[in-house]
Write a structure and sequence with these properties.
By secondary structure, the protein is an all-alpha fold. 68% of the residues lie in helices and 0% in strands. It has 4 helices and no strands.
């Protein structure tokens, strides 16, 4: 289960929009202080927004991140199922083994 978000989504969206629509661009530290958020959090939100809008290709978009999370969950589930099937096949193979002595 994911950890709860420290900042609400509305605050994130407002902060990024405020930065994006400002001209000249404000200093991130000052804007973060005014909004009551950590400057690195604001910097990450801005970079993610830029990646989502195709202005940066040094990080995956939000859609790509969500797909990666989904695929990792699916992969973990398939690995668990595979382990169960291995154990079950070993059990049934031993049950069908003609050299095995019955008790």
């Amino acid at each position: 289960m994911a950890a709860p978000k420290k900042y609400p989504d509305e605050l994130r969206e407002r902060a990024v929009r405020l930065y994006r629509e400002s001209d000249p661009k404000p200093v991130i530290r000052q804007l973060a202080r005014q909004l009551g958020v950590h400057h690195e959090a604001l910097r990450n939100w801005i970079r993610q927004d830029e990646a989502d809008h195709g202005r940066h290709d040094d990080r995956p978009t939000s859609g790509e991140l969500e797909e990666l999370r989904r695929l990792r969950r699916e992969n973990a589930e398939l690995k668990r199922a595979n382990e169960i099937l291995k154990v079950a096949s070993a059990f049934f193979a031993s049950e069908l083994d003609p050299t095995r002595r019955r008790s």
